Each structure stands twice: as C-alpha cells, then as structure tokens.
Amino acid sequence: MDVDFAPFSYLTAPNERLYRTVMDAFVQAKRRFTVHLRPEDVRESMRDGVELPAIVDALTRLVEWGNLRADPDTSRVTTVEDFHRSRFLYQLTRRGEAVEQAVTAYDEALGRRGALQAVALADIATQLRALAGLADDAERDPAKVHLLLRGLVDRFTDLAGNAQAFMGSLQRTIDLHDADADVFRAYKDRLIDYLERFIKDLVAAGAEIATLVGDLEYRGVDRLLDIAARREAEDAAPGTTGDDDPRQVEFERVRPLWDERWQGFRAWFVSEPHHPSQAKLLRAQARAAIPQLLQVVAVLNERRSGRSDRSADFRVLARWFAEAPVDDDLHRLWRASFGLSAARHLSVNEESLEEAVPAQTPWLEAPPLLISPRLRRTGSYERRGKPSRVIDRSIERRHLSDIARREAAETAAARAALATTHPTRLSDVGELDPVAFRCFLALLGDALAARVPGRRTVETTTSDGAMSVRLTALDDGRTAKVRTPYGVFRGPDHLLEITDLTAAEAVERSA
Question: What's the number of CA atoms in the CB half-sphere (13 Å) around residue 47?
C-alpha cells in the first residue's frame, strides 16, 4: 500500500512556522464548525501581522502538498473583472486533517509529564464491582454492560499511559545533574512523598482489583464481552456484496478486540508464573526511583561542599583547552595535566643503554617496556619497612560465634513453639515472645503473598526450607488477636497449620 507523505512536507519547508500558523488557523476554524476560510480570514486569525501576499503563497503551497483544497470563490463577484480574478475558498482535506492530528499527538507526547493516578485505581475497582453485579443478573442491560466496559477500558488506558509518561519524565529528572541543589532538594521531598502515597495505594487497590478480576472471570466475563461486542455491531453499515449479515461480520471483527483489551487489562494487575504483573513492575520501578533520587541529592551536596568531582574537573580542563590563545599554550597545558612527555628512561642499566630509544620516537612505534608491578604501584623495586603485624581476631570470632549460636537456638525454639500437629485458628495462638512473633509474621507474610485470587486455601514453604505453612480463610467474620510484649496483633481469623520441617517430630501448639 503506497502512502503519500507530501502533506508532511510543510513541516520541513523553509517557512515552516508560517505554514504551521496557517494550518492552525484552519484547525481552530474547524473546532468552531467553520468549513471554508478566505485568505483575509486566515490573516485575521494570525497575530504576527503577516502580509496577505505571503499568506496567499503559503495557501497555494499547502494546496499543492494536499493539506488544503481550493474552491473558486464566486460569492463576491460583482463584475466581469472580479470573475476572471483568482479568488478561492480554502478548507482542510482529509489528509491535511490527519497530519494535524498526528502533529498534535506528537507535541502532546513530547510535553506530557504524566501522573500516577491513585484515583483511577479506585474507579477501576468500582467499575469491576458493578460488572460483577451485572454478571449475576439474569436480564443484563446491554447498554449498562457496554458503558461499564468502555469506561473501564478508557480509565485503564488513561492510567497506564499516564504512569508510563510519568516514569519516563521521572527518569529524565533523575538523570539531570546540573539542576539547582536547593530547588532539586525541595522537589525531591515532594516527589518522594508522592511516590510513597501511590505505592501504598497501588498495593491496597492492586490486590483488590486482582481479586475482582478473578471473581469476574469466575462469574463469566466472556458473556459480558459478547454483549459489548454485539451492541457495537448493531449499527454496522451494509456491505457492498449484500450476502452476509453486516452485524455478524462486525461482531466477528470486534469480538477479538475486546478479548485483547481484557487480556491486557488482566496482565496489568494479575501476575502469572514467571510473568509479574505490570502493576508489580511499576511498584518496583517507583520504589527504585526513591534511592536514585537520594543518590542525585548526595552528588549535588558533594559538589556544593567542594569535594573532588572528576567529571567537573574534566569540564574545567576542556574549557581551559578551548580558551588557550595559541597552540604552544595547548601543548604546555597537556604536559602539565597528563605528564605524558617524550622521555622513556625509567631506569638505566646495561640493557637500556644497549637498546636506547631516541626521545623523539612516538609511543606507538617504540618497543614495549616491561615494568614490575611493584614499581608501577609504589615507584620502587623493593618493599620498604617492616612487615605488617598480624592482628589476633580470635576474641572477636568467638564473640560472633556465640551470637550466631544464640540466635540459632532462639530461632529453633521459635519454630518449635509455632509448629502445630493439627489445624489451629489464629485466635487460639495466644501470646508470643518477640522472636516467635517475628517468625510468625514472616510465615504469615509468605502465605498471604502466595495467595491466588479465588482460592480459599494457600500452602507454601519458607525460602530457607525450614517450615511450611497452610492458611485457610474463614467466613465467620471473627477477628483474631495475638498478644506480644509490644502490643496486640489483630486481623481476620484464619485456619493455620505450621510444620517445622527441621524437627524429627512436630510438637503440638497448645493455646
């Protein structure tokens, strides 16, 4: 398929600014539902006072490139001379309008800063809950289903596009090393607070959205997608052949598009094995940006305090080279900066006297010199001074060994205290000491992280392979309380089963 790129020619023409101003006048007129413009109308919309002949020439060139169409203007003809004089009405062509839309999208993409929209996450969750309610309704309203799915796609597209634009602008901000230190530090504080709030909202809302997605797929999201595609195909125009039902043809074209939209939306919030969700990757990228921002602030502080900066030194040296008045000054500056003179005598012995190389010999043409590593490091062939004393670290090693044994014993005691021989409710765990409570929180965190939407029971093993935990959700609405020396830990009651894989025999936990 041949594509005509002539309408883009005005973007690289010598009078590019004038052409863009003229085309902008036609775009503004179209927004006011004005179709035709005369050269005088174009001149009135321009603020820089361009002469009318220049505007007419620009309009003529734009007509040649295919951006505009010229129609004879006979509305103001009063004499025969007016009829033979060239007068035209100009309007945008389809190609010219497409070029303006492309240029506008290009400018918006370059200037777009983006945002992390926590409000969009709440809107997406609300729309998913509404769709779940329609999925259970026997008489589904096609209009409501279609509007909810369209709203979900639009809100998600806006969220993903803004997040991508924001992270791109954030990376450019991190790479900015010449910013004012005080301004950047003030901006850094606001930005880190913004990132932390979004990460917190994304963790909470992302888990809820993933659960709602699984629930909606269980209730039958395919039927809702069929309804939306069928409604979009209702107004399909008849084809030229007249043999096939145009609505069925349009439905078969639109239905795979809805599948792609849903799969893209699902992949953004639901992780698969070896394929983390885009929300999880965005959360990791936002977290990684915080230490990078702090590192940039540290670099700015070092420059401000006067610490040596090799890149700054090289920039100053480059400026000295650029400002040197004559070539002799350049050579002197080179020798003073790098010390690479023509002399090659590092040591004088019988071999060096026999194989003497003139000082004018270029380095690339001279034979290589074998230099002792000690001479290269210290400037001397022999090591000077007494050997370093060996420090006795036996006391420190014993101390560290005692600490390691004590921590291992405490961890083993905590595992033994938490192990159960039968399923136990969280509310029956009772009181835990600090070590056992830390181990309990780690087990609970591993189990909750491994939970899959739609499943009530999860079973996992700790990363060190020492313990396994089985967690089952309960529907009685009870709240479990675990008492510790630091306070009371509360949460929804679950059925818990913990196995100490390092012990020969599990010990039953009694509350």
Answer: 1
Tell me the three-class secondary structure of 441-505, residue by residue: HHHHHHHHHCCCCCCCEEEEECCCCCEEEEEEECCCCCEEEEEECCEEEEEECEEEEEEECCCCC
C-alpha 73/C-alpha 56 separation (Å) is 14
The predicted structure's pLDDT at residue 511 = 35
Rounded Cα distance between 511 and 267, Å, is 43
What is each CA distance from 181 to 176, 270, 301, 472, in whole angstroms? 11, 40, 7, 53
Element at 69 (helix H, strand E): strand 68-72
Residue 218 near residue 135 (C-beta atoms within 8 A): no
* 385 φ/ψ sector (left φ>0, alpha ψ -120 to 50, else beta): left
Instruction: Name which of 229, 212, 224, 208 is nearest 135 in CA terms.
Output: 224
Strand order in the sheet with 467-473: 424-425, 494-500, 467-473, 457-461
Would you say 95 and 66 are in contact if contact means Cβ atoms under 8 Å apart?
Answer: yes
Low-confidence ranges of the chain (pLDDT < 50): 1-2, 177, 345, 504-511
Burial of 217: CB neighbours in 10 Å, binned 0-12, 13-18, 19+: middle
- The Cα 298–Cα 229 span in angstroms is 55
Residue whose pair of structure tokens reads 């000054």 in the numeric block: 329
With H, G, I as helix, E, B as strand and everything else as coil, classify residue 3.
coil
Secondary structure E strands in 99-179:
none
The residue among 73, 17, 7 whose CA lies nearest residue 50 is 17
> Cβ atoms within 10 A of the Cβ of 436, count?
21
**Contact call for residues 148 and 127 (beta carbons, < 8 A):** yes
Which pLDDT belongs to residue 499?
Answer: 82
75-88: pLDDT as tens digits: 665 555 555 556 78
The model's pTM: 0.41
Query: How high is the pLDDT of residue 510?
Result: 37
Residue 448 CA to residue 314 CA, distance in Å, equals: 53
**Tokens (6 digits) for 354:** 């026999």
Half-sphere exposure of 393 (CA within 13 A, CB side): 6
For residue 150, the model assigns a pLDDT of 87
- Dig out the tokens for 83 from the structure: 């009829």
Q: Give which of 492, 418, 431, 406 is closest to 462, Cα–Cα.
A: 418
